[in-house]
Each structure stands twice: as C-alpha cells, then as structure tokens.
Amino acid sequence: MNLIVMKDYNEISRQAALLVAASIALKPNLVLGLPTGRTPVQMYKELVLIHRNGFVDFKNVVTFNLDEYVNLPRKNPNSYYSYMQKNFFRHVNVRKENIHIPDGMAKNIKEECTRYEELIRAKGPIDLMILGIGHNGHIGFNEPSDEFVPETHIESLTEKTRIANSKYFGSLSKVPAKAITMGLGTIMHSKKIILLASGRDKAETIKRAISGNITPRFPASVLRLHRDCTFIIDKEAAEMIKK
Ligand code: PGA
Fold first, then answer.
1. 138 CA to middle of ligand 1, Å?
2. Which partner for 117 in 66, 149, 152, 233 could form a disulfide, CB atoms 3.0-4.6 Å apart?
3. Ligand 1 centroid vs 132 CA: distance in angstroms?
C-alpha cells in the first residue's frame, strides 16, 4: 500500500482528478469505479474543470458506482443517482449507457445485486477504483462485520453510518436502513485503487486502516492486501500515523 500525504483537501482532490484524467488519457475506455459522500465532491469539480478545458474526454469511459440506498427513489436529492448527476455526470460527457449505479428501487434487490456484480464482471475489471472511507472503516457501504462479504450485496447500515448521513436527510428516521454495495471482493478485483481522506476527524480511521489488524471488523484494512492501492490523504487525516 502506498501513502501520499498532501497539504489539504484541495490538493488531494486535484491530485485524484489528475490521476483519473491521466488514466483516461492512457486508456480512453477506462472502467472507473466511483464513490459518493463529502470527500470526492472537490475531485469531481476538478474533473469537470479539466474536462471543460478540453484535457479529458469521457466519451468512452465506463463508470460503476460503489453503492446506492435501498428504497430511495432516484429523484430523491439524497440518492446517489442524484448526487452523481449533480456533482459529475450532468457536467461531463460520460454516455448514459456507460453509467452504472445499483438500482435501489429494483423489485427484487437480491437479483439486482447479482445483475450488478455480473455486469461489473462482464465489462470489467474496474481499472481504477476511487474510494472514500467511513469513520468506522467502511468502504462503499461494507460495514464492519464478522466476515468479508466478497460480492455486491444488501447491507444493513450501522447506527454510526446512519447518524453520519442524517445530516443530508434532516433526521435519522429518514435515512434508509439498507443499501446495495459492491462487495470487498468486487472492490479488491480493481486493478488500481485510490482512497481519499481529508480532515482531523478521519485521522484515527486512517491510522487503523494503515496499521491496525486486517479484519472485517474494519473493512478498509483489507486494502493493505491489494497490490496497487494508494491512500491520498491530507495532513490532518495523516496526523495520527506514526512517523
Ligand atoms: P464522507 O464519507 O466522504 O462523507 O466522509 C465517506 C464514506 O462514508 O465512505
């Protein structure tokens, strides 16, 4: 696992955007795994800017989002579908048919998980996976658990995650209880993984991801077993790493 520590949130966002753009320059039909949440917002802004300046073309890029809430209509502003339209897809030229986000409103959610996993297998492997990290070490919505769940599946969100996300929904009761998420195996099959983290509130999380036990109780720890995974984090998030 590689570690890059940069000055602040803007720097890590720009670095991540440049990495995505460079990967697309090298492989125009890149298969790109995408996260949501607070952390990647600025990376998406930077990517939109790079695109507007004519330095990146998403025409042949294929995207797979990590996760989506179950039972939250796409048009709800808190769905990850809406998030992706607002922050990224509306502003760039990724083809509609190349955008893949799990359907949290599917009649049969289990079947939807299987469909999504098979689609990733058919179109993948994911060349570049961008991740955020939850305070409890979750990646995608892979919550702390007794075992690593390899494939796309339904996850019951922990109280901690629902509280963290309630800031977007206005109240805890409105946060969906379940989500569809790529599994840890789905993520680990990506050729290259970049994890972004920013801020002092992620310092303890990053310390555990880098130096704690590799355990499903802290899902991000598994990334240490990947052969091409880089954490790009700012100084505040790096504060608790032993020098
Ligand atoms: P955040 O979420 O970027 O909003 O902190 C990260 C995550 O939960 O994966």
1. 9
2. 152
3. 5
